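Quick one:
INPUT:
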């Protein structure tokens, strides 16, 4: 099924997340700012007044020009770094440090080169003290979910970029996080592999039932994957607008030629082109 004609007009609006009921909200980002500074250099205002609510199970694409603070925001949500101002809550509690309920997939795979796929996926479970048989079973199921069966005993250097990223996704899912944070995970892949993995992550995130926050420069990637695209302004990063994506799930390749998809990608490109050009 594809989106129908009634959905052709792009649902671009602002402040969507303020309409969510409090019990649905999993991540509540309130007026968050981030200034990078040192005694010797000019401070850099990376984020300024970012306010966003994310619902449990939602797939959010964070879209914006280079340097607008997407990775900074993801790092603050992960707990790798702290906000300079504002507040960030997960299920009503402040996020102060990294935790197993939020795992991250980076562009550069971040697999341990000296471990096999199976060992990489088991790593977080072993660290939690889980027994050998149980973690092997969980890892096998996740390796099957990302379609790497038969590659359990391979090392990262024996696999393609796309396969490594599948393994990284399985590893991030292993601790059964509530929230999967993805920082341009397909940025280093060739165009064809990227398209295939977009379809895979759409399937995997639905099957796994996780909240996903997916950072990307790619407009079509952002729209294809998301329930909601959050468009950020150039630095200092703010939420500029939000686009609700009405395409049904599972997302399939033919949705890329759906009239709503095509017109929304074009509209976003027209809106963002001047900013992208400035940032070049
Ligand atoms: N550790 C740091 N110290 C100083 N400035 C930083 C630091 N990290 C990021 N910045 C600056 O903060 C701004 C936002 O960076 P960030 O990496 O979050 O943007 P981004 O939108 O993810 O960019 P890209 O899409 O190019 O990865 C940039 O101007 C960057 O140079």
């Amino acid at each position: 099924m594809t989106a129908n004609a009634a959905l052709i007009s792009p649902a671009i609006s602002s402040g969507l997340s303020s309409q969510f009921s409090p019990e649905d909200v999993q991540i509540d980002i309130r007026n968050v700012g981030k200034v990078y500074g040192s005694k010797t250099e000019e401070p850099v205002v990376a984020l300024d007044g970012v306010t966003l609510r994310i619902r449990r199970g939602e797939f959010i694409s964070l879209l914006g020009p280079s340097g607008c603070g997407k990775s900074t925001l993801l790092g603050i949500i992960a707990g790798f770094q702290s906000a300079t101002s504002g507040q960030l809550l997960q299920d009503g509690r402040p996020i102060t440090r990294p935790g197993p309920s939020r795992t991250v997939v980076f562009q550069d795979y971040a697999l341990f080169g000296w471990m096999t796929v199976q060992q990489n996926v088991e790593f977080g479970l072993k660290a939690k003290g889980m027994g050998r048989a149980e973690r092997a079973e969980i890892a096998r199921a996740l390796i099957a979910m990302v379609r790497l069966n038969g590659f359990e005993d391979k090392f990262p250097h024996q696999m393609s970029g796309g396969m490594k990223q599948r393994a990284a996704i399985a590893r991030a899912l292993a601790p059964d996080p509530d929230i999967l944070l993805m920082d341009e995970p397909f940025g280093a892949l060739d165009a064809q592999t990227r398209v295939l993995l977009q379809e895979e992550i759409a399937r995997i995130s639905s099957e796994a039932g996780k909240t996903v926050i997916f950072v990307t420069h790619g407009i079509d990637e952002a729209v294809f994957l998301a329930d909601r695209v959050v468009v950020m302004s150039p630095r200092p990063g703010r939420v500029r607008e939000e686009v609700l994506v009405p395409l049904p799930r599972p997302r399939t390749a033919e949705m890329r030629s759906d009239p709503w998809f095509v017109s929304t990608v074009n509209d976003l490109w027209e809106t963002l082109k001047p900013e992208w050009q400035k940032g070049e």
